[in-house]
TrEMBL record:
PANTHER family: MAESTRO HEAT-LIKE REPEAT FAMILY MEMBER 4, MAESTRO-RELATED HEAT DOMAIN-CONTAINING
Species assigned in the record: Canis lupus familiaris (Dog)
Domain of life: Eukaryota
One Pfam family hit: HEAT_Maestro
Full protein name: Maestro heat-like repeat family member 5
Length: 1041
């Protein structure tokens, strides 16, 4: 509530406040401006005189007293209280009755007598403003407080409709307050309670006008009165400042907003600021209401139209500047609102060439250029004041932080304005301010990065200022460190850069090096992260600049170990948003450079970025493969990470997915199918193989076997693989991608891979895999070396894998080429001391017979015969290869028919032997044949295998036909029917070839076997005879003798 009567001490006053929410959110763009001088020192009084224009005449008479004024004061002082009261009543009456009073209308002798010494002509009009001045002077000279209150209240009861009337009342109140401060305050309090609150709106944005025009703008009059009180009361106003501001803020907040209220509030604020500035003791006071006053000023600034027609912007900013110098210092939140609002108000103005055309119709068009320059100069002064009040690098970063939205603007004029503002601020700091501390805020690197991204801006002024800003910031950093040598080098470099503006991008190199030396690791990291953000722009020039700068920084070897994680994480986040392909290629070069410098840290961070199966990180891994030596280091590190296997009791269930060994496993699996790593994987084959075998055993130990057996290779549904399945698929992929597909096929056809799906059959799987590798001489020497190393390990799982591989390799005839018998004895002896029973048993078995026989198997005779034939075909050696080829060719038809053997074990062995024959005979479609043998089913697969066989042996159709005839009499129904299918296919598809290759004798044999089917009890056989008898008859017409 507003209280009437004598004002208590300021600290006892509780002013009712309405808070205004005026935080201006920064826009997404930036603004530019014309050149403006840096010589804007705080002593330019005229440029800051932002008082109300209507007050000029009134203040002029108060500033310098003329002789007639002294005489007037003498006349007033000579009056009695009753005379003064009559004169005041007469003036009040005339003010209320007419806008102007003519001399001839002044009938009161007291007024005549008072004005006579002024020698005014009888016909000369007397301005109403002069009467308000006289009214205030009389009140000031009155000794009676009651008289002052009574006549001041009567004055304020007059109409508040016109600007001159409101201003005159305020002037009279202000003059009176110089002698009667408490009385004037009490009168204004009474006016506020009885009149201002009656006209108050429900909200600051309420626009419905008050119907009584007499009192409609009473709040504006009150605001002007408080301003004049501050201006006339002198030093006595200081204890009252918070109370004055609280009333100003409240009246502004609850009154209907219009141009009159806005102008009155700003005029009052200007007068208050001028009053405070004139008093030297102001600095001793602490004012609590300054933020609220600033909020109201910012609200006015926010409502300014988006064109320049007045100096309102300049006035508001300069008032805020002066208020910011008062104690206590403004809180960061208040300063932030100031910066956001002021920057938005000026930077969002239209471009200079459009400012004039945006003006509404005016009688007298203002000089828009002058208004713009003055407004921008006010902003410069505000920023200079902030940094002068807090001379620290933290404050500098705080100010620059608020320019960020505009530095990122897509609008050239906005960007141009903000860069020029920053340049002028930095120039002022370098020339006039000595920063008091050695703070190293990390965000300085971010702000430097934003400025660097403008080095190729299309506007040459923005380009130039952005580069100069970097030099000035570097100069500040060097001055803080006190390094004179660096300072001299910077000046030389600056001069060189100025001369080299038209040269190539190499002119940036020295500046990048200077930044690398001057910035702290945290600042340097922020700089890099900001440049990484610039890669995602749709402006190719900016993207290219960012990528080239980053490549320079990386190549300069300035990145420290502690920066790698944050930099790679930042790059990983930006990768999906990079638009241009050449930018992505440049960044991949940078990653290669970073990986070369900090390989271990790079690999560790990349493992943590995301799960390997998500593949977003794959481009980074590919970048590390651009350098062959680096790619090898990467795989070695992944192998080492794969071996980081904590015991089961130390691994929580929730942590299993985060195990570094599982991340390394997933990465290895992805890299196996990455073209860039193909040669490196082949180089590291042995290590990867042993690592995967031991990893699978470790996963069995952890009991994370879910999903290993229900995997479907031909499923179209993509699901993430379980750890165990990932390991097994990686093991299979290792052989497939390194072109050791024969080993893969060996296990696939014998269903050997399924042995790895259970811990109980795991050792059998390793044994079978080692046997296949020995058969095909697949990296035996390298794997043997790795196995020997693993045999020396303290981990049992390593020993198990090693001894299984070594004992199986003993069956290889070539083993003695890689290791002597004595060395093998020594290594096997190591296994005898192992705590694991399996390792001891296998070691003993290996020692008893270095040339041990293959393990005996209980299988049908034909299955064993087929398997033995396959082994002979494979291991015959070069000497017997021609003979083996003939035998293999003769066995093709029998093997083809046994693919439908009634015994599954025989079928499995037949497939492998059939494939071995195809490999020996060097068929063209061996891999395709393997695919059909491994995964093919039904008639389609049978037909494809038939085609591969026949087409791979061109001209041998009649030989196949004659071999197949024998099986028409087979007691095994499935073999017999397979023979009929084969013969029928030959007759249908190769009839013409048979006409030239068959002889009469061959045809007689054919007819003999076919006639047997005529009386066969099997209906299928009889139908076959009937279907193909005609073909045989037709064939006999063409065969030769």
């Amino acid at each position: 509530m507003l209280e009437c009567g004598p004002a208590p001490a300021p600290q006892d006053l509780c002013s009712h406040q309405e808070s205004l929410s005026m935080v201006a959110a920064p826009s997404d763009g930036f603004h530019g401006s014309q050149w403006r001088s840096t010589c804007l020192l705080p002593t330019e009084e005229q440029k800051r005189d932002v008082g109300h224009p209507g007050r000029a005449t009134l203040d002029e008479s108060l500033g310098d007293r003329s002789p007639w004024e002294e005489e007037l004061l003498g006349q007033i002082r000579a009056m009695s209280d009753s005379q003064r009261s009559r004169v005041l009543e007469a003036i009040q009456h005339r003010i209320e009755e007419h806008t102007q009073l003519l001399w001839k209308e002044v009938a009161d002798p007291g007024i005549r007598e008072l004005l006579a010494p002024l020698n005014l002509e009888p016909q000369q009009p007397v301005e109403k403003a002069f009467l308000f001045l006289v009214y205030g002077l009389i009140l000031r000279e009155c000794a009676s407080s009651d008289l002052v209150r009574r006549h001041l209240m009567r004055l304020l009861e007059l109409s508040h409709q016109t600007a001159g009337q409101r201003e005159g009342m305020a002037v009279a109140s202000g003059i009176a307050s110089s002698s009667h401060l408490q009385e004037v305050w009490a009168t204004l309090e009474h006016l506020g309670r009885t009149r201002v609150l009656r006209t108050a709106c429900t909200s600051p944005d309420y626009q419905e006008p008050y119907t009584d025009v007499h009192w409609r703008w009473v709040s504006s009059t009150s605001l002007l009165c408080y301003g004049h009180m501050a201006l006339h009361a002198g030093e006595r106003i200081l204890p009252w400042v918070d109370n004055v501001i609280s009333r100003m803020v409240y009246y502004f907040s609850c009154s209907c907003y219009d141009n009159i209220l806005e102008t009155s509030f700003l005029s009052a604020a200007v007068m208050l600021v001028k009053a405070l500035k004139q008093e030297h003791s102001t600095r001793r006071y602490r004012f609590t209401q300054i933020p609220e006053l600033i909020q109201c000023l910012l609200a006015i600034l926010q409502k300014e139209p988006n064109f320049l027609a007045t100096l309102f912007r300049q006035k508001i900013i300069l008032v805020i500047m002066e208020l910011s110098k008062l104690r206590p210092s403004l809180k960061p939140a208040v300063k932030s609102r100031i910066l956001q609002t002021c920057l938005q108000s000026l930077y969002m103005l239209p471009p200079m060439e459009m400012l004039k055309s945006c003006l509404p119709p005016l009688d007298l068009a203002p000089d828009v250029m002058v208004l713009y320059q003055k407004s921008m100069q006010a902003l410069d002064l505000l920023l200079q004041t902030f940094i002068s009040e807090n001379k620290s690098m933290d404050e500098m970063c705080f100010l620059l932080q608020h320019t960020e939205p505009w530095l990122k603007s897509d609008k050239s004029h906005e960007c141009k304005r903000v860069v020029q503002t920053i340049f002028l601020l930095l120039k002022y700091v370098v020339d006039y301010v000595k920063l008091t501390d050695e703070a190293t805020p990390s965000m300085l690197g971010h702000q430097i990065g934003l400025l660097m991204l403008l080095w190729r801006d299309r506007d040459p002024v923005t380009q130039s200022h952005s580069r100069q800003c970097i030099y000035l910031l570097l100069q500040l950093l060097i001055q803080q460190k006190g390094s004179m040598g660096q300072f001299m080098h910077l000046n030389k470099m600056k001069n060189f850069e100025a001369k080299a503006l038209r040269r190539s991008e190499m002119k940036f190199y020295n500046l990048v090096k200077a930044l690398d030396r001057s910035l702290t690791p945290a600042q340097h990291t922020q700089l890099i992260l900001t440049l990484l953000g610039g890669l995602c722009s749709h402006d190719h020039l900016q993207c290219d600049l960012a990528s080239q700068l980053l490549l320079m920084i990386f190549q300069n070897q300035s990145i420290k170990v502690e920066q790698v994680a944050e930099i790679l994480q930042g790059l990983f986040q930006e990768l999906p948003s990079i638009v241009f392909k050449n930018i992505l290629q440049t960044m991949m070069k940078a990653v290669t450079v970073l990986g070369t410098q900090h390989t271990q840290e790079t690999v560790e961070v990349m493992l943590s970025l995301c799960h390997p199966s998500e593949r977003q990180v794959l481009p980074l891994w590919k970048a590390l493969a651009n350098n062959n030596q680096l790619a090898r280091k990467v795989l070695m590190l992944l192998y080492m990470k794969l071996k980081l296997r904590p015991p089961k009791e130390l691994v929580r269930l929730s942590q299993q997915a985060e195990l570094i060994s599982l991340l390394a496993l997933g990465t290895i699996y992805e890299l196996l199918y990455t073209r860039e790593y193909k040669a490196t994987v082949r180089w590291a084959f042995a290590g990867i193989l042993v690592g995967l075998l031991t990893q699978l055993h470790y996963l069995f130990e952890l009991d994370v076997v879910e999903g290993i057996s229900d995997y479907q290779e031909d499923s179209l549904e993509v699901k993430p693989l379980s750890p165990c399945r990932t390991c097994l698929e990686a093991l299979k992929g290792l052989f497939w991608t390194t072109n050791y597909w024969e080993v893969f096929a060996y296990l696939q056809l014998l269903r050997g891979w399924e042995l790895f799906e259970h811990l109980e059959t795991y050792t059998e799987g390793v044994t079978l895999l080692a046997r296949a590798m020995a058969h095909y001489d697949c990296e035996v020497k390298a794997v043997l070396g790795q196995a020997v190393i693993s045999l020396k390990s303290s981990e049992e799982r390593d020993n198990i894998v090693a001894i299984l591989v070594i004992t199986e390799f003993l069956n290889s005839q070539e083993l003695t080429q890689y290791m002597s018998r004595r060395a093998m004895d020594n290594f096997l002896s190591l296994g005898l001391s192992s705590p694991n029973q399996l390792v001891r048993a296998m070691s003993l078995k290996g020692l008893t017979s270095i040339l041990m026989d293959p393990k005996k198997e209980q299988a049908p005779v034909r299955g064993r015969a087929i398997s033995l034939f396959g082994d002979v075909v494979h291991s015959g050696g070069k000497k017997y290869r021609p003979a083996l080829k003939r035998q293999a060719f003769q066995a093709l038809v029998p093997l083809l028919f046994h693919l439908v053997d009634s015994c599954p074990a025989v079928v499995m062995k037949t497939k492998l032997t059939f494939l071995r024959c195809a490999i020996l005979l060097k068929w063209e479609f061996r891999k395709e044949l393997f695919g059909k043998l491994a995964w093919g089913h039904g008639l389609g697969a049978e037909n494809d295998i038939f085609i591969y066989m026949v087409e791979s042996n061109f001209g041998s159709y009649h030989q196949f036909l004659m071999q197949a005839l024998i099986y028409l009499g087979s007691p095994h129904k499935n073999l017999k029917r397979m023979a009929m299918k084969f013969i029928g296919g030959i007759l249908q598809d190769y009839f013409t070839d048979l006409c030239f290759s068959l002889k009469r004798g061959d045809l007689k044999i054919f007819k003999k076997y076919l006639e047997v089917l005529k009386k066969d009890s099997d209906s299928v056989s009889r139908r076959f005879y009937q279907n193909f008898l005609e073909d045989i008859t037709e064939l006999s017409k063409f065969v030769r003798q």
